[in-house]
Amino acid sequence: MVNKDIHGPLPQYAEQSNPLLEAVARRDAYYDRNRAKICTFYIRGACTRGKLCPFRHEMPVDNELANQNIKDRYHGNNDPVAAKILHKISDIQTTSQQLQPPADQTICTLFLSSIPEGTTYEFIKTTFEQYGEISSLKYLEEKRCAILTYLYRSSAEEAVIRTNGYVKSGNAFIRVGWTKKRDDATKASQDTAASGGELPAIPPPEILPTNIHTLRYTSMESDYTPVTKRPKLPPGL
């Protein structure tokens, strides 16, 4: 397709949105931009307009922007706005790394953290079962986390992609990420202990030689009498 006013073909735009832009995008309305400024006379206690004053009668919140120098802001030195943007970008990069699916295809478990108070078990199950069949769900309400296991790996990947690492619950968000695989030796020992089996025996202490003498004093002025003691062996040896 060629436009007569523009020489050459039209640019091809991406059909899908960028996941990084979706993470940065604001999900709620932001009304602070259009709010009235704080009345400086009210801060000094000298405003006589009362309710007729077009400015806000409230004390400012102390933050880094209140003490910002215009010269530093212009040259980019000690800029809290830039530091906030860089910190936000680092958080996005950390989140994107956590959303990378593990190489082990047997892992179908997701870890849900920062669960807001008041979130119920039914809400978590209803929210995540739309991406696939859930095998198990363990909700630790006191620790504000949950362990969710899907029956298929494709369902877990779809849940991570569709939620983009966050699920809204009330006025807060639940963080979604992959679980890490436990060490094989640790897992084997835990499974053995859970099943009631015997753990590997602890090796006995090394037997000391019999020619070692311990000193026993009868008094401070008398000579000592060497007493030979053999170490006690653990029962069964």
What does this structure look like?
It is a single chain. The chain is of the alpha+beta class and 237 residues long. Among the domains are: 16-60, no CATH class; 69-98, no CATH class; 102-183, Alpha-Beta Plaits. Helix content is 28%, strand content 16%. The strands form 2 sheets. Strands 2-3-1-5-4 form a 5-stranded antiparallel β-sheet. Strands 6-7 form a two-stranded antiparallel sheet. Strand 6 (213-216) and strand 7 form a beta hairpin. It is extended.
In short:
28% of the residues lie in helices and 16% in strands.
Radius of gyration: 33 Å
Low-confidence stretches: 208-222
Q: Describe the oligomeric state of these chains in a short phrase.
A: single chain
Give the biggest sheet. 5 strands, antiparallel
Number of helical segments with 4 or more residues: 7
**CATH class group of the domain at 102-183:** Alpha Beta
Instruction: Classify the fold: give the CATH topology of the domain at 102-183.
Output: Alpha-Beta Plaits
The largest sheet has its strands arranged as 2-3-1-5-4
Silhouette: extended
CATH architecture of the domain at 102-183: 2-Layer Sandwich
What is the structural class?
alpha+beta
Q: Report the average pLDDT across residues.
A: 73
Give the % helix: 25-40%
Q: What is the secondary structure topology, with strand pairs?
A:
Elements lengths: L18 H6 L15 H5 L25 H6 L4 H19 L10 E5 L7 H8 L5 E7 L4 E6 L2 H11 L2 E4 L2 E7 L5 H11 L18 E4 L8 E4 L9
Antiparallel strand pairs: 1-3, 1-5, 2-3, 4-5, 6-7
Entry keywords:
single chain, 237 residues, 7 strands, U6 snRNA binding, Alpha-Beta Plaits, Cwc2/Slt11, zinc-finger, RNA-binding
